[in-house]
Amino acid sequence: MVLRAIFILLNALAGMALFARAENAGELFGLYGFGVGAAAGALIVAGEYALRTLSFGVLVGGTIGLSVGLLLAGLVEWVGGNIFGAETFRYHIEGLVFLLGLPYLGLVIGGRLGQERFSDNRPRAAGSSLKVLDTSVIIDGRVADLCETGFLEGTFLVPHFILNELHHIADSSDALKRARGRRGLDILNKIQKMADLDVRVVEEDFLHVKEVDGKLVVLARQMGAKIITNDLNLNKVAELQGVRVLNINELCNALRPVVLPGETVRVFVLKEGKEAGQGVAYLDDGTMIVVDNARRCIGRNVDVIVTSVLQTTAGRMIFTRLKEETEPEELQIARG
């Protein structure tokens, strides 16, 4: 930002110097030149921002189309000047239309063809290895463990606006947010040091998109990449727009041990449940276990029998009852 401000200032000073050297320059010519130079510098900076949001294919196609349009406009003007009267009002109007219209059409058509050409010819294997990291999954930290085990590999893309969001969270006045932001920066630094991974910071920022999730989806579509996240809302938005998502939560749910009704599990009853008399325990992977009539067992290890398993978007819940209550029922049935 500072470099761009210096560039605009230098343009303004150059404009002031050029206007001051003009013939019959008045006292205000220097101020006019300063304003014109500053405006020209601002337009160039605005053009740079606009170009940063465009893909490589659009830039190449647009440049080729603009060049072809200018050549056609010059050719039409030369032919028209030799055939029709070059001094007629009609000739000047038609020449202006061609001079503005043909380059514009070339720019638009060339940009569209370039985008389609490069997006269609992008190697699928290379595209599938590109992965965009979301803020939530960086702060979560489990992605670093997956990278260490070798389950995730390839090229990781970290957009600059994600880095800005992490820095903003790390500088928050709230202690919890500040800790989460610093954890995310530490995790990102850890991933960058892994030898088998290529982590690249992407400078592209889509100014026409306000939300960070929307920018991630646009970037992933443009780069042909997948998004790594644990945000359910981002997952849904990306899938609706045809972007593949690697959800860490879904992976963890899929890797949790399968517990079937009737199996016996030994758990530590940690706290009281929502319903009267219930106790709550957890497996090592964080799966919640609800134990009927286990309030009296809080703080103890007990054997429980699985009665049912409920799978939700938030995770898996296992409903059980105490084995000591089940055994008398089994003995009674056996005696009967």
Describe it:
With 336 residues, the chain is α/β, with parallel strands linked by helices. The chain folds into 3 domains: 2-120, no CATH class; 124-254, 5'-nuclease (Rossmann fold, 3-Layer(aba) Sandwich), CATH 3.40.50.1010; 257-335, Nucleic acid-binding proteins (OB fold (Dihydrolipoamide Acetyltransferase, E2P), Beta Barrel), CATH 2.40.50. The protein is 57% helix and 18% strand. It has 13 helices and 10 strands. Strands 3-2-1-4-5 form a 5-stranded parallel beta sheet. β7 (279-282) and β8 form a beta hairpin. α8 crosses α9. It is elongated and about 105 Å long. It starts with a helix and ends with a helix. Residues 120-127 and 330-335 have low confidence and may be disordered.
Q: Note the main sheet.
A: 5 strands, parallel
Radius of gyration: 32 Å
Distance between the termini: 85 Å
Structural class assignment: alpha/beta
> Helical region count?
13
The amount of helix comes to 55-70%
> What name is given to the CATH topology of the largest domain?
Rossmann fold
Count structural domains: 3
Low-confidence stretches: 120-127, 330-335
The CATH superfamily name of the largest domain is: 5'-nuclease
Sequence of secondary-structure elements: HHHHHEHHEHHEHEHEHEEEEEH
Q: Per the principal axes of the C-alpha atoms, what is the gross shape?
A: elongated
Strand order of the largest sheet: 3-2-1-4-5
Mean pLDDT: 77
CATH top level of the largest domain is Alpha Beta
Strand content: 15-25%
